[in-house]
Design goal:
About 50% of the residues lie in helices and about 20% in strands. The chain contains 11 helices and 10 strands. Helix 2 packs across helix 4. The radius of gyration is 21 Å and the shape is globular. The chain starts with a strand and ends with a strand.
C-alpha cells in the first residue's frame, strides 16, 4: 500500500486535505505523532526536538552533529510507518526525508495568498497586515529549514510528483485527483521496492542506534544495509568506541549479520593526550 506526503504553506488547506485523504483511503494521518514517537523512543524531550528542528539557522550556522542526530531519529520513525504503508504525512519535510523511496506519492499544495491571510485572520483575530506578516515568516522558516538541513529548495518542483492548486479546485476535487494518482501503477509497491524499503528501514535503525551514542555519532560512520546484512565503515577513536559500536549494532532488530570495516584513530592517554594507532 503506497503512502502520501503533503507539503503545504501555512493555512493553505493542506491539513484539511490530509484528513480528507486519510478518511477516504482508510490511511493514517501523521504529523506531530512522528515527533512524539521519536522523542519517546530515543529519550529526548519533545520540546527540545521540536525547537531544534524548527528554529531557522542564522547565515553563518552549520549543521551540528546534534541536529543530525535528531534528524535520523525522525527519519527512522517516519520510514518505519511508511514501510507498513497507508500513511498520509504532513510534517517536517517528508518529501525530502523520503526522497528516493518508491511507493510514496509526494504532493505539494498551493493556495492563493489572500485566502491564506483571511484564514489566519479568522483563526488568530489578527488584522490583515499582521496575518500577512505571520504567514510570510512561517513560509520563510520552512524554506530556510529545508535548505539548511537538506540543502534542497522547498519550491523545487522535482521534489514533488503532483502539485495541487487550490485556487482553481476544491478540496474534494483535489482529494479525488490524489486518490486516483496514488492508485496508479507508478506508485504501487513492488517486490523490488519492498526490499529496498526494508533495507532503508534497517539502515535507518542502525544509524539511529549509533546516533544514540553522541560520541560515536560524531565519527560520521557510513552505514549500508542489504537483505539483513549491514556493513559499517569509517574510523573510531580507540578500541572502547569500537567495542561500543559492535555492541550497538548487534542489538538492532533485523540485523542478521554485520561487518565492521572500521579503523582506530587514536587511544586516549592519561592527561588527555592521544596515542596514534
Amino acid at each position: 500500500m503506497p503512502s502520501i506526503t503533503i507539503s503545504r504553506g501555512t493555512k493553505s488547506g493542506g491539513i484539511q486535505l490530509t484528513n480528507m485523504l486519510a478518511e477516504r483511503l482508510g490511511y493514517r494521518a501523521l504529523s506531530r505523532e512522528v515527533l512524539v514517537e521519536s522523542a519517546e523512543k530515543y529519550r529526548i524531550g519533545e520540546e527540545i526536538l521540536q525547537e531544534e528542528l524548527t528554529k531557522p539557522p542564522s547565515l553563518w550556522q552549520r549543521l551540528t552533529h546534534e541536529r543530525r542526530r535528531y534528524l535520523i531519529f525522525i527519519k527512522c520513525s517516519l520510514i518505519q510507518h511508511v514501510a507498513r504503508g497507508g500513511v498520509v504525512y504532513h510534517g517536517n519535510a517528508g518529501q525530502v526525508l523520503l526522497e528516493g523511496i518508491h511507493g510514496v506519492l509526494r504532493v505539494r499544495v498551493e493556495a492563493p495568498l489572500p485566502r491564506r491571510i483571511e484564514a489566519e485572520m479568522r483563526l488568530h483575530g489578527l488584522d490583515r497586515d499582521e496575518a500577512a506578516a505571520r504567514i510570510s515568516r512561517a513560509d520563510e522558516r520552512r524554506r530556510r529549514w529545508v535548505k539548511y538541513l537538506y540543502d534542497r529548495d522547498w519550491d523545487d518542483a522535482s521534489l514533488y510528483d503532483l502539485t495541487i492548486n487550490l485556487a482553481t479546485m476544491s478540496l474534494e476535487t483535489a482529494c479525488d485527483l490524489i486518490c486516483h494518482a496514488v492508485g496508479e501503477p507508478e506508485f504501487q509497491p513492488t517486490t523490488q521496492s519492498h526490499g529496498f524499503l526494508q533495507d532503508a528501514c534497517l539502515q535507518c535503525a542502525v544509524e539511529a542506534a549509533l546516533a544514540s551514542d553522541s560520541a560515536l555519532w560524531k565519527q560520521g560512520l557510513a552505514v549500508r544495509a542489504s537483505s539483513g546484512s549491514v556493513a559499517i565503515s569509517g574510523e573510531v577513536e580507540g578500541t572502547r568506541q569500537k567495542a561500543r559500536l559492535d555492541e550497538l549494532v548487534s542489538q538492532v532488530d533485523g540485523v542478521k549479520q554485520y561487518s565492521l570495516d572500521v579503523g582506530l584513530a587514536s587511544e586516549p592517554l592519561p592527561g588527555g593526550r592521544r596515542l596514534s594507532l
